[in-house]
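The following record pairs a protein chain with its ligand, tryptophanyl-5'AMP.
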Amino acid sequence: MDKPNKRILSGVQPSGDLHLGNYLGAIKNFVSLQDEYECFFCVVDLHAITVWQDPATLAQKTREVTAAFIASGIDSKKNTLFVQSQVPQHSQLAWAFSCIARMGWLNRMTQFKDKAGKNSENVSVGLYSYPTLMAADILIYLATHVPVGEDQKQHLELTRDIAQKFNNDFKNDLFPIPEPLILGEAKRVMSLRDGTKKMSKSDPSDYSRIMLSDTQDEIIQKIKKAKTDPLPLPDNLVAAKSRPEALNLLTLYAALSDADTETVIRNYAGKHFSQFKKDLGDLASSKLAPISLEINKLMNDKDFLDSIINTGKEKAISVAEPVLKQVYEIIGFLSR
Ligand code: TYM
């Protein structure tokens, strides 16, 4: 079997509307990596059902994330865009990995602790074992690189541990040890209401996040209302780092304008937030509006989206199936 040396896999959950964190932390980077790497981009619906999803909405959101990939500039011909549940090898490998991963490793996952909170007796088993499925998503393609936002770093470390333990236990070198690619200025986009909390789909406040589906007016309003402090903008990075809301807005500006944060800080040093927020609102709405328009257009062409999803499924299975076959042989399962 050919071993790739520049292959990417990454995934996005269809568990709600996409927000600016998903775009800047992940999808925008997918776009810039697609020329250099062979890429597999996956709508991870199996991950979404670790918490309750309304069936009709899940189907709609699965197409919507696919549309967002394309609308953001991912070439659906060159790359493999597919839906996780349509490629059964992910779940099959995940079972083997749940026998490789140790309870102690999963017990350390901070995202599970955050999501389960005080309710850990009552959340699904899937929410707990989720990182073993994520490892399978990556390793079933022998992916070497994984672009993600910073919040996924710990899951990537677990994936590396699983790959290493599998290779050691079975004395082989089937799996690469994949590298995280945590890129860009907005590696961890924070809530617009609290600069110490990650921007997320689950925050109860709509004003905490900008959605790809927001209108230009909504984007401008949300940025205008974003929490800040009473001081003028900082004039250096060290000062900005002690002001989480200011730093978040400055990094958003940097990421959206493809500049580095220090340059943006220099340009706005000592200025008032009112002017900066106006510029940021205009910038964000002008960058996101064409994407949102294109998503809506694609959502009206279900046949086109489904044909891309179907082609992606075939391509993904053609790579995943021989890897699973080899895993089964290595483990000692009888061949079918
Ligand atoms: P998900 O669906 O929560 O998020 C999709 C991508 O968006 C990034 N992201 C952020 N980046 C910066 N700031 C934020 N506030 C922010 N919020 C989300 C995430 O880091 C992610 O890159 N477990 C994954 C999905 C997954 C996956 C995979 C990723 C399943 N299998 C295999 C990579 C490889 C998740 O829940 O992402």
